[in-house]
Amino acid sequence: MRGGPVADPSSEADPDLPDFFLKRLARLANRQAASCNLAERTALSLATLSTLLDCIDLGHEEQALALIAQVRDEIDLGEYLLV
User: Using CB atoms within 10 A of its CB, is residue 28 exposed (0-12), middle (13-18) or buried (19+)?
Assistant: First the structure.
């Protein structure tokens, strides 16, 4: 038995699907980071997690985690500059 993600028939049928989910992940993570409303942040965190898992299922774990890290780093840097 070999390791790694299982080939998803949906990505074979639509090769743009991984790109769609990675862009969605970036948008959601940025919206979550920018939101000041707790209820909205909570809802966006669930949508972000769901989309992250979709990216992982499509075999794009490294890219998805890099997007999340980039958003996190931008927030950390911004907070540091405000001090």
Answer: buried
